[in-house]
Amino acid sequence: MFSSRLGWNLAPNPLARLLEQKRSAGAAILDLTESNPTAAGFTYPGEEILRALSDPRSLRYEPAPAGIPAAREAVSHYYSGRVAADQILLTASTSEAYEFVFKLLADPGDEVLVPRPSYPLFDFLAALEAVRAVPYPLVYHGGWAIDFDALAQSITPRTRAIVLVNPNNPTGSFVKQTELAELIRLCRDHGLALVSDEVFCDYALDDDPQRVRSLTGVDDVLTFCLSGLSKIAGLPQMKLGWIAVCGPAAARREAFDRLELIADTYLSTGTPVQWAASALLASRAQVQGQILARVRQNRAFLASRIGPDSPWRLLATEGGWYAILEAPKIHTEEEWVLTLLSAGNVLVQPGFFFDFEREAFLVASLLTPPEVFQEGVQRILARVR
User: Fold this and answer.
1) Cys staple from 97: which of 35, 43, 226, 365, with CB 3.0 to 4.6 Å?
2) What is the percent of the chain with per-residue pLDDT over 90, rounded to a whole number?
3) Domain range enclosing 338
4) Domain-terminating residue out of 282, 305, 328
């Protein structure tokens, strides 16, 4: 009766069941998975945000498939003019941006190459568009890098795009200049598009001249850069994302026209948030500063607790909101997360949620309030000293 695209197991996993039992029993959980900035104790410019959302122009509905021009100009200004407003199409979220790009590029059964480990929603987003997500590996040797041999071997006649998350979630690794050159070569040789998810690009932990912060400067191959207010301004509830269409002029214009037709079918982006976009983007510095300070503080604390002789290993990261711990191999990842929750009331995510190729990795959010994060880390490390 129902579509095969929805053939996923809907039963709660063991971690979710245990968490529900703990919370029902009134246990005080140290949640090291908090990724919602509005629930992490940051101070927002509330009056400015509410004032921006009260624009009287929001009372009039004038559908604009690519988005209200003033909002597209605001996004162009965010990019310091590197992307013109007429290259920007607004969406209700980054997830919707993926849907539009997959609709544009792929027929049912076609393939997109996605990084592993990475964002755990790719399989769902692709399947809902009847597209197959084919993983290519990121490898770790003191830092993360694309395995180009494996990536090249994954390309088939049905491949339509290479997807990047830059910086990656959860590894925090940015694409490097040399990697981008090789990605462009592969896309040019095989007629592929690049799709770059850049929602965390403002959260680099340090400077690196070899790092590519954004692919908006790519003009060799058709490139789609995705982002939105959810991470950039710490405002996931505002539901405003976008696609910046870059690449050769003729291909870019044709792609944009087709994306606009897709967007015209749904008209999903709300009017109030579009009129507020300029003010919301202008206010992002206050929230971004708090988030970066929190992320750096929590990561520094974690690093200070793991010495050279520790059975634990903290993997290197360049940006984003997450830390990855390699755990002693005395348990599987599932055993680790269940033991930490059952015996220590500490909630972390297992690496297999992000499709790590091997075990055992634990993923913790660096957005967690410091007092919770520090106590949680101490309880984790105390399991094996």
Assistant:
1) 226
2) 94
3) 4-43+285-382
4) 282
**Same domain flag for 157 and 205:** yes
Q: What is the CA radius of gyration of the chain?
A: 21
d(C-alpha 133, C-alpha 110), whole Å: 9
- Token digits of residue 213: 């912060």
In this structure, the answer to whether residues 182 and 223 fall within a common structural domain is yes
- Please tell me whether residues 269 and 125 are part of one structural domain: yes
Same domain for 345 and 274, yes or no, is no
CA distance 295 to 306: 17
Q: What is the CATH number of the domain that holds 300?
A: 3.90.1150.10
Q: Is residue 236 within 8 Å of residue 95, measured between CB atoms?
A: no
- Number of domains within the chain: 2
pLDDT tens by residue, 328-379:
999 999 999 999 999 999 999 999 999 999 999 999 999 999 999 999 999 9
Report the pLDDT averaged over residues 198-207.
96
pLDDT tens, residue by residue, 156-176: 999 999 999 999 999 999 999
Write the pLDDT tens digit of every residue in 91-121: 999 999 999 999 999 999 999 999 999 988 8
Nearest-angstrom CA–CA distance, 137 and 115: 6
